[in-house]
Design brief:
Number of strands: 0
Structural class: mainly alpha
Distance between the termini: 98 Å
Number of helices: 4
Length: about 200
Amino acid sequence: MDVSGAGAPIAAVVGVVGTLLSALLTQRAAERGRRGEQERAERVQARAREAEERRTCCVALNTASRQYLAALTDQLHALMRREDSRAVAQRLTEARDLHRDVYAEAQMRLRDPVLALAGEVTHALGALYGELRRLNDGVPRPGDSLDAAQWEIDALWEGLRGLRRGMRADLGASELSRPGPGAPDPRLFRTNPGASRASSGC
């Protein structure tokens, strides 16, 4: 029996099987590579969507907070001038409601350090709202006064600048290595001994 002649078909079969296996392994490796690239692309897209959602949330919160504080300022001025403040009060209610909704969304999206700043500002806005309502209704509590409200408004504008700075740093728009001008002070809204800090439910 010719051994060399019998081995030729076997070698051919082995060669064909090897070629097929090589092609199959190459195809599977390519598929794994494509899946890996797709997963990486999806992760990048998810991070980009999350960043855009946080940016949109920060813009909305900054805008709503400023509008709320502007409406509170208008209410204070109306009280100081002792003029009919019904239209001003209506705008204030609308600004408060908008801020409440935006802040509720922010609680689900903002990172904890920024959310802590937003919570401090929101609490102070709500306390000032309650104080102005009591002054408007003629039922002030000890410490409620127009002067105290003006002081709190000034402190809140500083607080909003600090919140905005914190949001910008979180979004990568600026650095926040240490508190500087306009940075939030944790005691910012609690240093007026004559001001009432009762919550208004915000």
